[in-house]
Each structure stands twice: as C-alpha cells, then as structure tokens.
Amino acid sequence: MIRYSTAGESHGRCLTAILEGVPAGVPVTEDFINKDLVRRQHTYGRGERQKFIEEDRASILSGVRWGETLGSPITLQVANKDWENWQKIMSLSAEDRAEKFQLSRPRPGHADLVGALKYDRRDVRDILERASARETAVRTAVGAVCKRFLEETGIRIFSYVHEVGEVEAKIPDDVPFSELYARAEASPIRTPDKEAGEKMMAAIDAAKAEGDTLGGSWTVVATGLPVGLGSHTQWDLKLDGLLAQAVLSIQAHKGVEFGAGFSSARNRGSDSHDEIRYAAGRGFFRDTNHAGGLEGGMTNGEPLVVRAAMKPLASLRKPLKSVNLNSKEEMTAEIVRSDVCPVAAAAVIGEAVTAVVLADALTRKFGGDSLRELKDNLSRYVEHVKSF
Q1: Which of 15, 213, 267, 322 is most exposed, with the fewest beta carbons within 10 Å of its own?
Q2: Class for domain 3-386, per CATH?
Q3: CB of 208 closer than 8 Å to CB of 340
Q4: CB proximity list for 308: less than 8 A, separation 6 or greater
Q5: Confidence of residue 50 (pLDDT cuts 50, 70, 90)
Q6: SS3 state at 373
Q7: Is pLDDT of 343 > 80?
Q8: What is the rounded distance in angstroms from the CA atom of residue 367 to the CA atom of residue 72?
Q9: Hey, what's the torsion of the CAs at 164, 194, 223, 387, to 10 degrees?
Q10: Cα gap 216→260, rounded to integer Å
Q11: Cα–Cα dist 208/91, whole Å
C-alpha cells in the first residue's frame, strides 16, 4: 500500500512529506521531481510569492540511494525561502508573541473561522498557515515520485486547463492526448486551445485589476492503465471514490467528474455507455470513452479522464465583510497575499494526487517489494486478460 503524509506551514521553515510503499528499484532523481514543482509554480495567474520569491526545489532526505528507491520510506522536503522574512511571526518561542502579528478577521470561504472555532484559536494565522494551498508544493513532489513509478509500468499522466471563469477551451475529440498535452505545456495558462488561452489570461488580468479572483476547471488524463485497478467489492475500494477524495482534498476544489460526468445525467442510456468490442491480440476494448476509463469502481482499460472544478480563492484584495473574532465588530476580512487564479497550477497538483491513487491501486493489485517483481506480475496479468 502506498501512503503519505505531509507537514509544515505556509510560511514555516519548510514543507515535509513521508511517502511509504514505493517498491525498490524505481529510478528517481531530484531533477525529475523538481520539473513538476516548476510546472506547478510558474503558471499564469500566480501571485508575487510564486513568481518572485520562492524557488521551489525538493530534496530527497531518505529512501533513495544511487538513483533508485530502496523500498523504505522516502522523505521529501521543500524549503520555504520566504521563511527568512517570517521568523518572528512563525517563531517557536512564546517570547516572540505579539499582537501586531495576529490576524482576527476571518475570510469568508476559507478555513479561518471554522478552524478557529474548532481548535480554540483567537489568531486565525494558526489555521490559515496549514490550510493554505502552499502545502501542495510537497504533495506535488510526492506525486512526481509516484508518476516516475507509474512510467516504469507504461502509465502516463498529464493535464490541461479546461475553463477559467466563463472562458471554456474547445477540446477536439479527434486530437490525440499526447498532442493536447504538448499544446498545454506550451501555454502559459496550460490550455491546448490557444485562442481560449488568450481570453483566459485577459480574464485573469481583469480580475486582478478589480482586486478579485477567478476559478475554473482542469482535466487530468492517465493512459496505459491495465483493466481492473480498484474493486467493486467494497465502497472504500472503488477507484472512482478514491480518486474523488484525492481530488477534492486539494484546497478550493468543489466538484469532480469522470468521463462524461454530469452531462451524462441529461442523456439517455443508449448515448451514455461505451459499447464493447473485441479483437484478437488486443482483447476487449471500446470505441468511445463516456465512462472516463472507470466502470464499477475499476479501470476498464481505456484512458482515465478526470475533471475537477475549482472555486475562486477566498483571499481578495477587496475583501468581503467579516466579524472580528475578539471584539465581534463587523468589518472587512483580512487581506492575505494570494494568487488571482491558480487553476493552471491546480492541474499539475491534480496529476500528483491522481498518480498517488493509481500507484497505490497498482501495488494493491500486483504486489511486489521490488519494481521487477511488480512488473513481472503485471506482464503476466496483461497477457492473461488479452487471451481471456
């Protein structure tokens, strides 16, 4: 079983993750991980911290030797460069406590108020520092390791931005996923539709000028998946449920769908399902993929297609009304440095959390303490399915 946990605050010394369950023998380097951190960090709509202050780089502190995983826990760390300017505010010492560092006006739409009430904190910084999407920097690093593992088995994961605000990209059905990915990677907003991308960036600029924020949606695609990852036998083993949990755990995400998703609710069954075909040497397959690669909580051999909806961020330069936690006086919420529209970055994070779930499902299905053992098991299974 592959599992991980993260630790660290947005403006603390660093972010740390411990990743367990990756088989021994997976080739992985810090450079490979850091490519995804750069993809997450440098996208259109990010704030000043991501553009000009942080230089996100992951360090591998354990679990890898001579470029290969050992099968033991992998420790990853991403340092916060901005920590230098926050040492008093985020100090460990009670002697540094000062009223001027405290925040008492929670932001509507953020974890501020609920967290303060739950954990009995009068300073919402005690909540927002951990609730911040800054935590996803180290989650992206975790996902990069899992992507590297999946690549060794022929599974590829990529993403693109589908919507920003009211601007929707036109995604042609006859363009291969590999080409969509290439187009997205060449776009500052990470969309394969160049015309829509220009409109998306204009919408982000307009929102920034007005002190506002924008949300949107992104799509993650995974190819090369074998049939049968996940299970129909229990509710908590269904792969679509596990993927939905992972995606909705990303800060500010409010919706997720697979394949045709919500649009299938408006269609008839004859237009919603994928007819089954068979060819010798290939086995069973479909000509369409309305299901998004999932049936009965399991992969069906077609590409996995996940789409998620992200709300506009709660940190506004023109803040909404709030109430002071201490005086109970009505006033505007705190102004906290933030992004205008991080949807393009969220798509990269979506790749990461998808990779973790798929890597876990792969190890549950095929076992193996080493990469070679798992690949042998996978190869035999694939041949069996083809000749079924």
Answers
A1: 267
A2: alpha beta
A3: yes
A4: 217, 218, 220, 247, 248, 250, 253, 255, 256, 257, 346, 350
A5: low
A6: helix
A7: yes
A8: 15
A9: 130
A10: 17
A11: 32
Tokens of 254: 């409010």
Contacts of 204 (CB under 8 A, 6+ apart): 44, 45, 164, 165, 189, 214, 340, 341
Q: Find all residues with CB under 8 Å of 265, minimum gap 6, and list them.
A: none
**Percent of all residues in the chain with a pLDDT value above 70, rounded to a whole number:** 98
Average pLDDT of the chain to the nearest whole number? 95
- Cα separations in angstroms, 361 against 21, 222, 236, 347: 11, 13, 12, 21
- The pTM of this model reads 0.95
Average pLDDT, integer, range 269-288: 93
H/E element, 137: helix 136-151
**Where are the chain's structural domains?**
3-386
pLDDT class of 51 with cuts at 50, 70, 90: low
Give the pLDDT mean for 335-348.
93
CA 154 to mean position of chain CA atoms: 21
